[in-house]
Specification:
Chain A: It holds the Pfam family PepSY_TM. Chain A: It comes from Methylocystis borbori. Chain A: InterPro entries: PepSY-ass_TM (IPR005625). Chain A: This is PepSY-associated TM helix domain-containing protein. The complex is a heterodimer of chains A (517) and B (95). Chain A has 517 residues and is α+β, with helices and mostly antiparallel strands. Helix content of chain A is 62%, strand content 8%. Chain A folds into three domains: 169 residues, no CATH class; 138 residues, no CATH class; 146 residues, no CATH class. Chain A has a seven-stranded antiparallel sheet. In chain A, strand 1 and strand 2 form a beta hairpin. Chain A starts with a helix and ends with a helix. In chain B, helix 1 crosses helix 3. The longest helix of chain B has 56 residues. In chain B, 89% of the residues lie in helices and 0% in strands. The interface between A and B is medium-sized, with 30 and 27 residues.
């Protein structure tokens, strides 16, 4: 089929990109947003915009309230407050399904339900499941896209001519095709380490989902035993006799003494049984590795064991940590965000190259379909995300199933973007579709900070003065998106005008061509 | 101190990539307006460029230790290399 390696790699690069690129844009974009998930949560749930407290709160003092909420739950978890999420998060499974409560650490009061999924329960699961939960299909699609990303990078490097001679070559002034080719190659080569490590570590995180056979062969039907043994978890069988858990504060300080670090998470199993197990995990904000070093106690506070840190496990913890960035390192957090958006730009420029080349063919099959899809997956996605922020501020707090309505708004706007792009591109006005959707992004992203001001009173100057960096940062990000969208829209408008002024003949014939295609 | 090291690490990698870009015939021609790049100078620019990249890595290590340092340096270098590419593009536009 192909006579040279370059030919076959070009084919592979082109078609894996065209088929899975749209999904990759969505994954990269949602991943970039997830970098600031806690900050976006603060913006979207104003009741959780609490001052960060440094004094550690007494768990024993909170126990009566927690026990009242738990009722007869057998297992529960409590996420302790930190600088990015300054409140306690209680989670357990009740008879009516999973329940979550946010607790104010200062008063011990339950914070009112914010009626939003926020970033941690919308953008973040979107990033790795595409919100397709049926039969676990979502993670499999994401895994295929991650594999495709690795294939794209490898084949891209193999087909690149003058990898080092053209390392910095970017000629934005020339024709669109050449400028896109330059930008695509420059970004791909320069960002190669990040773009390679991120999908690879993502695949490693889900390795037990993608490759279950190894675990299943050694532990048939008992994968949980494997995971317990892998982290050195202590488990006790249920005794059947009732039991009461002793002082959680004593257990926590004992664990914190061992770590020399603060606890982040508390997990209780067999909560009402004499054989209750209480697990504490440390926070990992001072290290890359996502290693909670779990410590297990029985209900009397006697230590049952500490998670063993074997070489394979610590390697995995490091790879997980690189991808999940649970650490506290603001320059790195921003760089991850920028690099994630860079990934989107890389894929979009790749599509532009394919489209520009394809358009010169006598029968450019699929060009309009792919261009409409690209518009919806890039600008349209940003537009729908802006709409999600706007819906979050516009929906009244007491709307029944408010969180679902936000999601509906997101997908309705995204669908509108698909229809608009499809219609405009079919009419031969692709440039108009790009421009109008860019203006739509400008309006949506610009409206969100204003609505935040109106509904919460936290305008940018106030949140900056009060050191509410999460709220201020999200506002600034939205305003920046709005500004960039406006610049892009204006440029697209100008480029459209000059193009029609300079070469009306060509455009008309191109129009005829696409109509006949 | 951590902020100074951060800026130093970025500045060093920016300068390092600038030297490496100048060691490439295309960019030497475009920025210096001279056709010929003597091979001694090219070698010098490359040694200088890589030394500054190494210095940038050392600054990142001093700031954050090896684990965070490598991540920081990798991403900072990507940003500075891209900045150099944009700077060169702007320079061509102006001339």
């Amino acid at each position: 089929m192909f006579t040279t390696l370059r030919q076959s790699m070009t084919w592979l690069h082109t078609w894996s990109g065209v088929t899975l690129g749209v999904i990759l844009i969505v994954i990269f974009f949602m991943g970039a947003l997830s970098v600031f998930d806690r900050e976006i949560d603060r913006w979207m749930a104003p009741t959780t915009r609490l001052p960060a407290r440094h004094a550690s709160i007494s768990l024993d003092a909170l126990r009566p309230r927690i026990d009242a909420l738990l009722a007869d739950a057998d297992q529960w978890r409590l996420v302790l407050p930190d600088a990015r999420a300054p409140f306690l998060q209680l989670g357990f499974r009740s008879k009516s399904g999973p329940r979550n409560f946010a607790i104010n650490p200062a008063s011990g009061d339950i914070l009112p339900d914010s009626g939003t999924l926020g970033a941690t329960r919308f953008f973040y699961p979107f990033h790795y499941t595409l919100l397709i939960r049926a039969f676990n299909i979502g993670p499999w699609i994401v895994g295929a896209a991650a594999m495709a990303m690795l294939v794209l990078l490898t084949s891209g490097v193999l087909i690149r001519t003058g990898l080092f001679a053209n390392f910095f070559t970017y000629r934005p002034k020339g024709p669109l095709l050449r400028a896109s080719q330059d930008l695509h190659a420059v970004m791909g080569v320069i960002g190669l380490p990040f773009f390679f490590v991120i999908p690879l570590s993502g695949l490693v995180i889900f390795s037990a989902v993608y490759l279950p056979a190894g675990i299943d062969a050694a532990y048939p039907g008992k994968a949980n035993v494997f995971f317990d043994e892998a982290v050195g978890a202590a488990r006790l069988p249920k005794s059947g006799g009732p039991g009461v858990i002793g002082s959680l504060d004593a257990m926590r300080s004992s664990a914190e003494r061992r770590w020399g670090a603060e606890a982040e998470l508390l997990l209780v199993t067999n909560a009402r049984d004499a054989n209750a197990v209480i697990e504490f995990r440390r926070n990992t904000k001072d290290r890359v590795s996502h290693d909670g070093e779990p410590i297990f106690f029985d209900r009397a506070g006697q230590m049952l064991g500490q998670g063993a840190n074997r070489p394979a496990r610590s390697t995995l913890d490091f790879i997980w940590g690189v991808h999940l960035l649970r650490f506290e390192h603001w320059p790195l957090r921003w760089l991850y965000f920028v690099a994630g958006l860079g990934g989107c730009a890389l894929i979009v420029t790749g599509f532009v190259i394919w489209l520009e080349k394809r358009k010169t063919k006598p029968h450019p099959t699929g060009v309009r379909f792919v261009e409409a899809l690209l518009i919806a997956a890039s600008v349209g996605l940003v537009f729908a995300t802006g709409g999600f922020f706007v819906a979050n501020r516009l929906l009244p707090q007491d709307t029944p199933s408010r969180a679902q309505w936000e999601t509906v708004a997101f997908f309705a706007l995204w669908a509108a973007s698909v229809v608009h792009a499809g219609q405009r591109v079919a009419a031969g006005q692709a440039q108009g579709a790009w421009r109008e959707q860019a203006w739509a992004v400008c309006i949506m992203a610009g409206a969100a900070p204003v609505l935040n001001w109106i509904t919460t009173g936290d305008h940018l100057a106030k949140s900056l003065a009060q050191g509410q960096w999460a709220v201020a940062g999200v506002d600034i990000g939205l305003l920046a998106a709005s500004f960039v969208a406006a610049m892009a829209a204006r440029r697209l408008g100008r480029a459209g005008e000059t193009a029609s002024r300079v070469e009306p003949q060509n455009r008309r014939s191109a129009q005829v061509e696409t109509d006949h295609a | 101190m951590p902020e100074i090291l951060l800026v130093a690490s970025f500045a060093a990698s920016l300068f390092g990539f600038l030297l490496l870009a100048l060691s490439l015939p295309r960019h030497w021609r475009e920025t210096m307006g001279e056709r010929h790049l003597p091979s001694d100078l090219r070698t010098g620019l490359r040694i200088g460029g890589f030394s500054f990249l190494l210095a940038s890595l050392v600054f990142a290590f001093f700031r954050d230790g090896p684990a965070f340092g490598v991540l920081l340096w990798t991403l900072l270098s990507a940003v500075s290399a891209l900045t150099v590419a944009f700077m060169l593009a702007m320079r061509i536009k102006r001339r």
